[in-house]
Amino acid sequence: MTGRVTISEVDGIRYLHLGTEWIQGAMRIADPLHLELEYIQQMMVWWLFEDEPKHIVQLGLGAGSLTRFAYHYFPDAQVTAVELNPDVVRAGHALFALPQPDARLALRIECAARWAAAQPAHSVDSLQLDLYHANSYAPALQSPEFYQDCARVLTDQGMLTVNLLGTPAVHRINLERLEAVFPAVVWLPESHDGNVVALAFKDPPSIDFSELELRAQQIQLVSGLPAQSWVQGLLRWMEHYT
């Protein structure tokens, strides 16, 4: 995530920008743990399938929303965030309630592709990709080789969520590349901001929607996330694409 960090505030929401009008992250000032943006909420869809991850990794820090959330709601997990722009990390600490690194939280200032290529295999349970430059027209990293490295670092039951923002062609190219690497890829309906969140599995699950509904209810009770809408989105995907 490169570019000059700028900040705006509207109606109690603080926004992160990289020198353009494009929003790179948001935080409700009165409730920093709330995931403000719809697609950011959807990035947690993996929670329906895994509630005890040992290592959660965020590539692309943004306003730190997912990192704050994971650090709080998964106290037994190691949390790692990888961000190229040190000014984004500094802004996170100063303006977006990003915790300081400790025994559970690691913040790496480096290229996400370099990080992924250097990590040991089978070391991450949940990998979340939200990698964009200032103009946000397509993912900053979207090569087949990068997605292969992402798959390699995941455990056998690991999952990847990726934010896809751009034209339908951008969505299609990235979904095809994910499908070439992962044995199962699904995606939620496009958010009102035009984001498509894809969920890729190393090991395709047997989906019992009645069980997912129960898990979604528990997630909503614990965190307030609209998890039942994710179940409905997955059901719509299965009805349309299978």
From TrEMBL:
InterPro entries: SAM-dependent_MTases_sf
Keyword tRNA processing: no
SUPFAM superfamilies, per database record: S-adenosyl-L-methionine-dependent methyltransferases (SSF53335)
GO BP term, pick one: polyamine biosynthetic process
Tree of life domain: Bacteria
Keyword tags: Polyamine biosynthesis
Name used for this protein in its record: Spermidine synthase
Species the sequence originates in: Candidatus Paenalcaligenes intestinipullorum
